[in-house]
Design brief:
- This protein has 210 residues and is α+β, with helices and mostly antiparallel strands.
- Among the domains are: 1-50, Ribosomal Protein S4 Delta 41, Chain A, domain 1; 101-189, Roll (Structural Genomics Hypothetical 15.5 Kd Protein In mrcA-pckA Intergenic Region, Chain A).
- It has helices at 8-15, 54-69, 73-85, 90-99, 102-108, 115-123, 153-165, 201-208, and strands at 127-129, 132-133, 146-149, 175-178, 183-186.
- A hairpin with a 2-residue loop joins β1 and β2.
- The chain starts with 7 loop residues before the first helix and ends with a helix.
């Protein structure tokens, strides 16, 4: 299997930024990125920082985005090929497609603490889109889609507890959230500013176009 089973924090340390792989824990002092002695690449020789080559810089940008959204290499390349076929800037189209993944949308609606939890919630059948159950985390949402939680006490309780744990949470402009139901709708397509990770998408395009 291609699924990563190692420590999540190891990936954040390798990229040198918070990838928000553990939800609320990433915002606490327990996060390795917050600890100076561990804010370096993992491994015995992580302290030996070498001068990065052009290839390394491009690879790290690709790996950063791939790990942030929880994708395998083959999945990432399929998104890149889809972005290439669309009109406009390929890098921005790639990020737009990744933002429109259902697991990312569920995470950004604060239904769950992390994208990993979002994938579990979706695959277990707790999420409905336009009245139909969707159990595929990679489902691409579109403008006008209505997202709702399964009409069961167990499903609603889990999501409402997460929403109540962060009452000051605000959604991005392309999402519209109803906390009481809970449900949401896609009112626009995500823009480049909605991507919450620092990334130079042009380097990714150059790497994948080799």
């Amino acid at each position: 299997m291609g699924r990563y089973l190692g420590p999540s924090c190891r990936r954040c340390r390798r990229e040198g930024i918070k990838l928000m792989l553990k939800g609320a824990r990433c915002e606490t002092a327990k996060c390795p990125i917050e600890k100076k002695q561990r804010n370096r690449p993992p491994g015995m020789h992580g302290w030996r920082r070498r001068r990065a080559t052009e290839y390394t810089e491009r690879l790290r940008e690709k790996q950063k985005v791939k790990r942030y959204y929880g994708l395998l290499d083959s999945q990432f390349m399929r998104y890149f090929q889809r972005a290439k076929r669309q009109r406009g800037n390929t890098g921005e189209k790639l990020l737009e497609l990744l933002e429109r993944r259902l697991d990312n949308v569920i995470y950004k609606l604060n239904f769950v603490p992390s994208r990993k939890a979002a994938r579990q919630l979706i695959s277990h059948g707790h999420i409905h889109i336009n009245g139909r159950k969707v159990s595929v985390p990679s489902y691409t949402v579109d403008v006008g889609d209505k997202i709702a939680v399964k009409d069961s006490e167990k499903s609603r309780k889990k999501v409402k507890e997460q929403l109540e744990s962060n009452p000051n949470f605000t959604t991005q402009n392309w999402l519209q959230l109803d906390r009481q139901e809970p449900k949401a709708s896609i009112v626009a397509l995500p823009e480049r500013e909605d991507v919450q990770i620092p990334v130079e998408e042009q380097l990714i395009v150059e790497f994948c176009s080799r």
